[in-house]
Amino acid sequence: MQERINKLIKLMAEFTMPGIALNPGPTLNYLTGLNFHLMERPTVLLITAGGQTALVLPALETGKLADIPIKIEAFTYSDDPETRPEAFFRAADYLGLGSTDLGVEATRMRYLEMMYLGDVLGEAGFLDASACLAGLRMTKDETEIKKMHQAAIIAQDALLETLKGIKAGMTEKEVANQLIIQLLRAGSGPELSFSPIVAFGENSANPHSTPSDRRLKEGDLLLVDWGASYEGYLSDITRAFTFGEVDPELLKIGEIVLRANQAGRAAGRAGIEAGSVDRASRAVIEEAGYGEAFTHRTGHGLGMEAHEEPYIFENNALVLEPGMTFTVEPGIYLAGKGGVRIEDNVVVTETGLETLTDLPRQVLPLESFMGL
């Protein structure tokens, strides 16, 4: 853990970031091994450019600090909200923050924590530390990659068990609920990557469809986007299936998306721009005449969060490095008819992209999995 904090301190120096404030989430967990829930009681980890750390937290959470391998000074408060400001002031005094600007995660820090921190910062304020923190978790070590691989295995096993029990007339919600049960049975942590997307027929044309009461019927395309967690690391996979005879155009776009997925995974390696992966996938779909129906980027970073750096979009000039992990998930979506997305999880190596997911990518008949 201390090595990770040292890495952050180096990044803070590069970005001239005098201090960092983190509330509960993957980055705090990555640095300390501590898990806290976002709730009405504020919890904030403070780190200075000099490497000093302080943690403001409710007194009832102090038991979590017993076995952490790094030194963190704790400042607690009781369930009486009136005791919170004192804890923040004591932490700031311990760190010598004075009028020090603090960097925060723009997508995670809440007004609640910023309100208490603002009172102790005086004329100082908050900085967007997103760029600084992006480099902290973007490259994974061997242990992290193994956990991501296991999360992928769990997710794939769970889907295969779910597919065996799907029947005509089941709703998207029912299939999604069965998938959640199978994910937990297969060994996923209780906090999944996200709520599974299960979409039948025309609903599969919505990339982020929400499971509904729409029932499965003959001639439907079935799209599933799901993931598992394993020891804090996630998987995120998408596959599509047919139920009976579907519109021939849906089979056609399935073949195109498969080629686009293959092209994206073949294009990546250390030393090239992230945007090159997107361009390789996108070119296949555009050449087939469906460019306007590919409505999102080719992928996103994956690790302790389902969406993190690096983001795989056309103009991203970020140079890929060994250990970076992300998704490759091209798609084609035809409004009112259906859509296909094929998503794999990959890790960058010196010579290419190693794929952590190996479930068949073709758009296969659902019947071939049922009753196995």
TrEMBL record:
**Stretches assigned to the Creatinase N-terminal domain:** 4-138
List each copy of the Peptidase M24 domain by range: 147-350
Instruction: Look up the EC number in the record and give it.
Output: 3.4.-.-
> Has keyword Metal-binding?
no
User: Which Gene Ontology terms cover its molecular function?
Assistant: aminopeptidase activity; metalloexopeptidase activity
Keyword Hydrolase among UniProt keywords: yes
Going by the UniProt record, its keywords in alphabetical order are: Hydrolase
Q: What class of enzyme is it?
A: hydrolase
| Matches recorded under Gene3D superfamilies | Creatinase/methionine aminopeptidase superfamily, Creatinase/prolidase N-terminal domain
Q: What is this protein called?
A: Putative M24B family peptidase
Q: Which organism is it from?
A: Candidatus Brevifilum fermentans
State the taxonomy lineage.
Answer: Bacteria, Bacillati, Chloroflexota, Anaerolineae, Anaerolineales
